[in-house]
Amino acid sequence: MGLISFLKDKFSKKEEKNEKYVAGLDKSRKNFSSKLKLLTKKYSKANEAYFEDLEQILIEADVGVNLALDIVEVTKKETNEKKLTDINQINELLVDKMFISYAQQGDNIVNEIQFKEDGPTVLLVVGVNGVGKTTTIAKLAYRYIHQGKKVLLVAGDTFRAGATEQLTVWAKRLGCEIVVGRENQDPSSVCYDGMRKAKEDKYDLVICDTAGRLQNKLNLMQELSKMKRVISKEIPDAPHDIFLIIDATTGQNGVVQAKAFKECTSLTGVVITKMDGTSKGGIILAIRDELGIPVRFIGLGEKIDDLQEFDLDQYLYSLCLSQEEDE
Amino acid sequence: MAFESLSDRFQGILKKIKGQSKLTEANMEDMLKEIRVALLEADVNFKVVKEFVNSVKEKAIGQEVFTKVSPGQMVVKIVHDELVSLLGADQCEINLRHKPTIIMMCGLQGSGKTTTSGKLALLFKKKMNKKVLLVAGDVYRPAAIDQLVTVGKQVDVEVLNLGNKLSPVDIAKKGVEKAKMENFDVVIIDTAGRLQIDEKLMQELVDIENAVRPDEELLLVDAMSGQDAVNVANSFNSKLHLTGMIMSKLDGDARGGSALSIKHLTGIPIKYAGIGEKLSDLEIFHPDRMADRILGMGDIVTLVEKVQEEVDEKEAKKAATKFMKGTFDLNDMLAQLEQINKISMSSMLRLIPGMPKISEEDKQKAKESMKVTKAIICSMTPEERKNPDIIKNSRKIRIAKGCGKTNQDVNRVLKQYDQMKEMMKQMRGRFNGKMPNF
Q1: A171 shares a domain with A88
Q2: From 1.20.120.140, 3.30.1330.10, 3.40.50.1980, 3.30.420.240, which CATH number describes the B6-87 domain?
Q3: Alpha helices, DSSP H only, in B64-110?
């Protein structure tokens, strides 16, 4: 099992860095890993019931039925082939399989936004209602302002009551500029104004907020495509990144969401929010599995610096491998 | 086809069984597996699915002996009955007998508390003629208060806005005091979204509960939420005394299985369902209808209610009288088309059984052509609308110019009018000039 030792190597090197990660994911992780640990106590050897329990753990983490069945199936197969009997070993094999399944579904991705040499880099943020788009935008802005970038926010949610005000409050706190529109103004025209200003005043990064929309509302999805078109008209090859925000509590509908938003805006990444709760956010594995979209950032709390680069090793590590002495 | 809707999937399964003359272990096994996967993909909790599948199995196999006629129908009934009992047998509304009735909203971040507060306020005001006070208790999220104030304006309900300097507990107290002094019937207290494991914020809710003793404590549950939703509801319920939940975002394509499992595992009834972004998009939750919908049997009762609500009865009567008299003109046609449009554009179509396949695109097209027709009729003078026969060539050119369309478009509308008029003449002939008794 070369990969596992490789994984462990990697983790041990990162020990100091991932404290925050581990703290943030504490609740999600405890749940998942304690369940896995329980299995090692419950079963002395691997049998059908044990694999059914594995399946249940994965499904309850919102990984989805199909992916859960697949992962358990390959784990089972390899267990039989290698004649593994130690439950601990099999548990590790499971994590191993999850890692491989994620890694195989697409190229390696650089999480950080890649800035263009000339002209502003544009990020469009999309998602269904109430997943935390505006808050995540504030966190991203904070991140890049700290890296010395000149950041402009565009309040593209002209629909929801209080949305523009919410982003304006953040802009004030962050000390960055914001472009706002009137209530119910066509969000595309706000984007247009934003792009204009970004070019004139030479911003490094423009982050466009959008109103939350359910993916089955065709007219709202078309509105999104229009915003994208207007942006690319002003700045060719923009938007350079389009992030779909997914709430960690989201169930299987997350895949449907990712699919619909991918079709109309060609997503470049997912940001998973509210990972400081008890939800395990397993849906990101299903999204990667079905659509190949990678997770770029992970929201771990309500504070402005509670946004971290997504790291698969650490995510799975925090979720599965940790050996807490509680329970 | 991993994500076809639950009803599609059930229909598929049941079709398979319909061909069979008898329920056997083997074909039951197949069906049960499908039902299991379908429910899991609908985010129904793992444990609930297990129970559900087992009880369906037990009941189906037991009945096999004495019902030989139609095993398919039998299974539909068993699954349906099980779903209804899973959803809770009866509908239940909020009881407004106290004055003021105090309602506290709570839930995770982004579950829809503020919007739903506004929707509830509108519902109580419009349908029950109640005087409602909204209390802005979310002092944490930036601009949350602004949001409630705007929502309050939209539904024309007073909002108590004490800024974000006071504690939510004090704000709640002041809200209830105000309601008592000023004779409000209902007080709705909006609270900040919070994680169920955030002890400080959960304690705050408990403090509000102790301070104002709400009559209703409602938990917002997102229809999209996954397996963990049950844990969230359990924690909220263990600290508070929840009296019900409201399922939000049911207008999406999420199946909402999680909320169903919450009902089953905690016993908290689902009282309302949010079905759109408009503030009037809130309906009473009907477990039996929901089960029908899941099974793809359509939801006729809701449909009828909706039609009654959205069709302006006066308008309809006026048109009917006119058409009996034979004085149907372009104004009436426009009114008629608008009525039809209202029904078809709303969320109603999906409620009609056997007809859920009208795509958003078709709807969009219909909407567009409605817009054009309206523009053309509106470009006519009142006289032309009353008496379309006078519209000859030069008038047509003027009308076309006025609405930015072509002569052909104007002709199309006039032709449509002629057809409608002709149809009405025929119907009138059939009814001999008397109003038909629908």
Answers
A1: no
A2: 1.20.120.140
A3: 71-87
Alpha carbons A76 and A70: distance in angstroms, whole number: 10
A131 touches chain B (CB under 8 A): yes
At residue A21 the predicted structure's pLDDT band, cuts being 50, 70 and 90, is low
Q: Are residues A165 and A44 in the same domain?
A: no
Distance, CA of A103 to CA of B438 (rounded, Å): 64
The single residue listed with the structure tokens 């997770």 is A295
Per CB-CB distance under 8 Å, the chain A contacts of B141 are 166
Q: Which among A170, A253, A282 is the nearest to B253, CB-wise?
A: A253
Instruction: Give the pLDDT confidence of B423-435 residue by residue, as tens digits.
Output: 777 766 665 545 4
Q: What is the mean pLDDT of residues B381-388?
A: 88
pLDDT tens, position by position, B32-63: 787 788 788 888 899 888 888 888 888 777 65
Q: Could you report the predicted ipTM of this complex, rounded to two decimals? A: 0.80
Q: Are A221 and A211 in contact (CB under 8 A)?
A: no
DSSP structure class, residue A318 = I
Tell whether domain B101-285 is in CATH 3.40.50.300: yes
Overall number of domains in chain A: 2
Highest mean pLDDT among B45-49, B135-139, B291-295: B135-139
A contacts of B112 (beta carbons < 8 Å): 129-130
Same domain, A157 and A101: no
Using one digit for the tens of pLDDT, what is the confidence trace for A121-132? Answer: 999 999 999 999
Euclidean distance between CA atoms B438 and B435, whole angstroms = 9
B329-368 as b/e, with b when 16 or more CB fall inside 10 Å? ebebbbbbbebebeeeebbbbbbeeeeeeeeeeeeeeeee
Residue A75 maps to which CATH number? Answer: 1.20.120.140
As a CATH number, domain B309-431 is 1.10.260.30
Nearest residue of B to residue A129 by CA position? B110
Is A323 part of any domain?
no
Q: Do A253 and B43 touch (CB under 8 A)?
A: yes
Range of the domain at A184: 121-317
CB contact under 8 A, B227 and A59: yes
Chain B CB contacts of A61 under 8 Å are 227
* Facing residue for A279 by CB, picked from B149, B226, B255: B226
